Amino acid sequence: MSSTMTLTGRLAGQPELRFSPSGVAVAAFTIVTSRRVKDPATGEWGDADTTFWDCKAFKQLAENVCESLEKGLEVVAVGRAVQESWEDKQTGQKRSKISVRIDAIGPSLRSATAKVTKSGGGKGQGRQEFAQAREQSARQGPPGDPWASGGQPAGAWGGDEPPF
Question: 66, 72, 75: which is closest to 15 by C-alpha?
Answer without folding.
Answer: 66
